[in-house]
Amino acid sequence: MSGCPFRQARKRGQSSPTFHKSVATPVPFGKRPLESVKKTRATLGVYGYFPLLMTSVVGTGSRGGLMLRKTIVIRVFVALLAGLVWFPMASAQAQQAWLQVEAQPTLAQAQSRAQAYTRSFPNVSGFRMPSGWYAIALGPYTRPAAEQELASLRRNRLIPRDSFIAFSNQYRQQFWPVGGRPTPPAVTSQPLDTAQPDPQPLIIPDETPREARNSERLLTREERLALQEALQWGGFYTGGLDGAFGRGTRAAMEAWQLEKGFEPTGVLTTKQRETLLTEYRAVFAALGLRTVRDTEAGIEMTLPAGMISRARVETPFVHYDSTTDDGVRVLLISQQGDQRTLFGLYDIMQTLEIVPQDGERNRSPTSFTLTGQGSQVHSYTFARLAEDTVKGFTVAWKPEDARLMNRVVEQMKESFSPISGAVLPDAAGDGAAQQIDLVSGLNIRRPDRSRSGFYIDTDGTVLTTTDVLGQCDYITLGGETRATVTARDNALGVAVLTPVAALAPPAFASFQSAVPRLRSEVAVSGFSYEDVLDLPTITFGTVADIRGLNGEDTLKRLDVATLPADAGGPVLDQTGSVIGMLRAAPDNSQRALPKDVQFSVNVSAIASFLINEGIQPAASDTTQPLAPEDLTTKASDFTVRVSCWN
């Protein structure tokens, strides 16, 4: 209290400055109005206002009275001084304590960080501070509990190292949780360091962005390259490996953080870098990528040796089968040959189940690539012609492993190296697994079912049966060309297919409008055995009736022994002109017809259907009968297999 005017006056040997001999009013304050006194109090605060308080206590009177009053003043002064010293301590003890873990300059940043902490702590709150910043705090606690909790969380590195204890009077409005909530009662129990279960894995960063940047600056170039390589391997980074954390690397880090549930800052913390590299190394360990030199095939390349093992040789393949549940398979391709061999292999590979139909196809004079993407398997095939040999590889995997295996494919492509002078002989392998639906031990891709159809114009438009069309994911003509259903008549049982890609058929059908005679000879052209044979089968019979069993004038009844896959095929007279389309056998479980009883849709009904769809059928002007072999050749040129795939 060196600034007290009483003590200053006594040191100078003067009387009290608060009195005047003739006027009993406070001299230093004079006759100031009340507003001035309030202003002075507000300016000086409690301690600066104390002389004014003392002046108010001491009044006029005798010298003895003055001494008494001085004694009272001193006692009051001591009591007030003790109270002022005790007041802030008692207030701090009574207030709720908080562990302030962060402060952010904007509300949006603070809400984002509060949300991140809420995933790991149940008692996160956010408050606006007098400075305008926004605090994120855990609590509330009692002061002793807060001190122990702070030490425990710091020790376990669960909160930033610069976290500290704050009190309720240091905060203003509450912004988190959103909408606010009543402040829970203070925690009076001791922090449960040993009684609580082990803390769950945290998703909040172990470092603040500033701390993360500081620790990042200490990384060596090799460590930076390793992080870029790990991000690249995971499919997050597509740039070059240069060790420089530019815009592309920052975007990759942010994408990785988003996928892992971290705040997307674009700067990895120490623990996040450790997690990224640990996952990356674990993937490599599982793949077992290493260089394999197959001297029999004459190929050296990187293979996922941790997932496959060499199984058998069946020209032109060396089979490496899966040894895990991942289902990864590798074929090394090796055979003698020229460009025709290469092109033939290109066609054969596309018929195999290991190469699904969806995917890019690229062929050059000296190489080809095939990518296959199906619901059960994805694959990649590469082959090239060099030194009178065709060498390459196929790798197949499950669709869910596409991102990882696409990176493996890159490694395999870059490392592929033919060994000069070594190639599989044409007779390699024991041939024990030879079957009609196998090629060198690989299953040929087969449709779920096939029917027949025939071309009706130069654009490759096909007329076929509606049988099973509704059960197909997609339809092909001849096993390769995709087609779509552009028109159908379910009552007649006929449909029009249009090829997706341009198609030039070798021939197309012409229609005979004249009504055939009863018992006249007819022929049905169709793929009786579905995809087993490459050419249609001709089945001969006769016209049994020019109407259906119930008198339908749109049908003819035939006496011919056909198979289900013949449905949709053309019915021909002896000149090779089309007089109808074979209908599918009726699905009637209550009544079974004799096997030789079949029906065809007559030409007049077909013509009306096509004309309504804007298609003009070609009329036949042929009257000369054909020999059976010539009839077979003519029908084969415009009959096509219609395949249903799922």
Walkthrough of the structure:
It is built from 14 helices and 29 strands. By secondary structure, the chain is an alpha+beta fold. A hairpin with a 3-residue loop joins strand 20 (474-477) and strand 21. Helix 8 (221-233) packs across helix 10 (270-287).
Q: What global shape is seen?
A: elongated
- Residue stretches low in confidence (pLDDT < 50, at least 5 long) are 1-93, 181-202
The radius of gyration over CA amounts to: 46 Å
Side-by-side strand order of the widest sheet: 8-9-10-14-13-12-11
Task: Please count the beta strands (DSSP E, at least 2 residues each).
Answer: 29
Give the helices and strands, then pairings.
Elements: H1 5-11, H2 34-48, H3 50-57, H4 63-94, E1 97-104, H5 107-118, E2 124-128, E3 134-141, H6 143-155, E4 164-167, E5 174-176, H7 209-216, H8 221-233, H9 247-260, H10 270-287, E6 289-294, E7 299-304, E8 308-314, E9 317-322, E10 329-336, H11 339-349, E11 361-363, E12 367-373, E13 378-386, E14 389-397, H12 402-415, E15 417-418, E16 438-439, E17 442-443, E18 449-455, E19 462-465, E20 474-477, E21 481-489, E22 494-499, E23 521-526, E24 537-545, E25 555-559, E26 570-572, E27 578-582, E28 597-602, H13 603-612, H14 628-638, E29 639-645
Antiparallel strand pairs: 1-3, 1-4, 2-3, 2-5, 6-7, 7-15, 8-9, 9-10, 10-14, 11-12, 12-13, 13-14, 16-17, 18-19, 18-29, 19-22, 20-21, 20-29, 21-22, 23-24, 23-26, 24-25, 25-28, 26-27, 27-28
Helix pairs in contact: 8-10
